[in-house]
UniProtKB/TrEMBL annotation, chain A:
Domain spans labelled Carrier: 5-86
InterPro entries cross-referenced by the UniProt entry: ACP-like_sf (IPR036736), PP-bd_ACP (IPR009081)
Organism encoding this protein: Roseomonas acroporae
Classification via Pfam families: PP-binding
Annotated Gene3D superfamilies: ACP-like
Name this protein carries in UniProt: Phosphopantetheine-binding protein
């Protein structure tokens, strides 16, 4: 499923704002890893992002989703997951 | 320095050997929901567990010499073989630990599974192998895959596997703390100390009645000392079962709890508890709103659910929190929402869990059975735990007349976040060592111990560098949880006449940079 660039930008803004990151949303490369070597997010951030996503898009993230690694692999994959599951 | 070990003090009577499985073999150790319809769980008994331990331990690499707590260098000649247990599924983690233990191999507990940390461990523990239940990229050491096939019919008729007797003094696991210099410090866990600790915790939390077995759902990884004690050692030694699957996000936790029968005990952290409560509130808000409770309701609402939204929580027997002090406001909200007492564990990686309290009952902690605390002449607190050398604590405490203690604060400049510990001095040295940084300082905000989402702040004078440059340099050496937010660049640091940093000024700058941060709840 393809995701609009608009949603990627919106999710980037959500991440930067909810985590108070030192980067501009536009600086998050859509294909770069969000965790570890890329943006350097950690498990505290994962919980914060999950809360922000549930508030904004009306669904809950889960860890036993087989694609979980891929969902958080990059901004693009996270946005695609949101596009598929959003209820608002 | 905290974590320093003294000579063994009071001797606690300890049998020479203790069985791997300290409970009835026909009882349920683990309940697993993965791959099953919502609300259902597969029960794994001690019989099946022991049979799978025998199968897995036969597949492990050749032994070294079993380690005893008296050994020094881990890499000394003839040292034990070490297993890095990376299993994500909790049953696999228990199985891997038990199989290694049965062979005399020492489990290394590392919740940091970054390639860099694995390379460090592989170098520090020659001959180490990894136990994995998921593929691992570029593993810097041999990998032994761990799996367990569901066996609905139980063990083949007549099959019995031995319950290995483990010497109480054998080092079963090694846990790590960051250490004040950033070099991880190893803390050896003899089998006897782990078994007595599990027994003391089970007695304290009412998890010791075979007639009323509870099921533990833990949100903390089995590779962290707190998660290891509560979700690996407890089901091995106390009459309770543990949920096998991942329970990290609020929705995971809610679904796992709903699928567990009987008395449910949630083992979690302040951060995850806060997320769970916010998500449960949000679900209620959604259900009340015009959109109704749609979206997450496909699993159906199980028995006894609370709340009306997608994130409904069943009644709990108890909730246990550790890794950071729990704010009374959060404990109060949790008791109201979950209808269960909120209990806290006090512990440290060096000594394990040693005391508990009910948060709303007041500030006093009651030490576990067998644990004694004392203050030395310098006011430093020492904990004597059965089976371990007496160990200095990182916190300042005051002993109470009733045999308990109160926490007065963290010693020196230690900071603890997400169950990890470091010192501001160490972070400041790293910051000031970055080429281009002329002056710099980390600051722990006042609410670091109360606000689960709090982070360290840092300030730097570094003309020619951006905050992103500095963060990139820090990221090479600092665990992500300790990276500063915000990191503010200043023309100079606000210092008073004697050069001491003006904390008030720094804190206003920090608050300014974070304005708009939602506080709990």
């Amino acid at each position: 499923m393809s995701t609009t660039v608009d949603l990627e930008a919106e999710v980037a803004k959500l991440i930067v704002e909810s985590l108070h990151l030192e980067v501009q949303p536009a600086e998050i490369a859509p294909d770069a890893p969000l965790f570890g070597e890329g943006l350097g997010l950690d498990s505290i951030d994962a919980l914060e992002i999950a809360l922000a996503i549930s508030r904004r898009y009306g669904f809950q993230l889960r860890s036993d989703d087989e694609r979980n690694h891929r969902i958080f692999a990059s901004l693009r994959s996270l946005a695609a997951h949101i596009e598929q599951h959003r209820t608002r | 320095m905290p974590g320093r070990a003294g000579p063994p003090r009071a001797r606690f009577p300890m049998p020479a050997e203790l069985p791997l499985l300290g409970r009835a073999a026909d009882a349920v150790l683990v309940r697993r929901t993965a791959g099953l319809p919502a609300g259902q769980a597969e029960a794994i008994t001690g019989h099946r567990f022991l049979a799978e331990v025998a199968l897995l331990s036969a597949r492990l690499p050749a032994d070294g010499a079993p380690a005893s707590v008296a050994d020094d260098a881990p890499a000394a000649g003839g040292a034990a073989r070490h297993a890095i247990n990376l299993c994500a599924d909790r049953y696999h983690a228990i199985l891997g630990f038990a199989a290694a233990l049965a062979r005399g191999h020492v489990t290394l507990l590392s919740s940091d599974r970054s390639p860099r940390r694995l390379r460090e461990l592989a170098a520090a523990y020659p001959g180490a192998y990894a136990l994995c239940d998921e593929p691992i990229d570029d593993a810097p050491l041999p990998v032994v895959p761990v799996s367990s096939a569901p066996q609905p019919g139980g063990m083949p008729a007549g099959a019995t596997a031995p319950n290995p007797a483990i010497p109480a003094g054998r080092v079963a696991a090694i846990a790590f703390t960051s250490g004040s210099t950033g070099v991880p410090v190893a803390h050896r866990k003899p089998w006897g100390s782990l078994v007595t600790g599990a027994g003391a915790a089970a007695a304290r939390f009412g998890l010791d009645d075979p007639a009323d077995p509870a099921t533990v759902v833990a949100t903390v990884p089995p590779q962290h000392m707190y998660g290891f004690e509560t979700s690996v050692m407890l089901p091995l030694q106390a009459p309770c079962a543990v949920h096998a699957g991942a329970a990290f996000y609020p929705d995971d936790v809610a679904r796992a709890l709903r699928a567990m029968p009987g008395r449910r005990v949630l083992v979690t952290t302040p951060l995850q508890l806060r997320s769970l409560l916010v998500a449960a509130e949000g679900a209620t808000d959604r259900a009340a709103g015009e959109r109704g409770g749609s979206g997450q309701g496909e699993e159906g609402q199980d028995e006894g659910s609370r709340g009306t939204g997608g994130l409904s929580l069943p009644p709990l027997g108890a909730l246990i929190s550790a890794t950071a002090p729990l704010a009374a406001s959060l404990a109060e909200a949790a008791e109201a929402a979950l209808g269960a007492p909120v209990l806290e564990i006090y512990g440290a990686t060096e000594v394990g869990s040693i005391a508990s309290r009910r948060t709303l009952a007041g500030p006093d902690w009651l030490p576990y059975r067998g644990t004694t605390l004392r203050l030395d002449g310098a006011g430093e607190a020492w904990a004597a735990v059965p089976g371990l050398p007496e160990t200095a604590l990182a916190d300042e405490i005051a002993l109470t007349d009733s045999g308990g203690f109160r926490l007065l604060g963290r010693r020196a400049d230690m900071v603890k976040l997400a169950g990890r510990r470091t010192s501001l001095g160490h972070l400041n040295r790293l910051l000031n060592a970055i080429p281009g940084v002329q002056d710099g300082a980390f600051m722990a905000p006042d609410d670091l111990e109360r606000n689960p989402a709090a982070r360290l702040a840092a300030f730097a004078v570094a003309p020619g560098l951006t905050a992103a440059d500095i963060l990139t340099a820090l990221r090479e050496q600092v665990e992500p949880v300790f990276l500063p937010r915000p990191l503010l660049l200043l023309p100079r640091l606000p210092r008073d006449a004697v050069g001491k940093l003006q904390r008030g000024t720094l804190d206003s700058l920090r608050r300014g940079a974070l304005s708009g941060v939602p506080a709990f709840p």
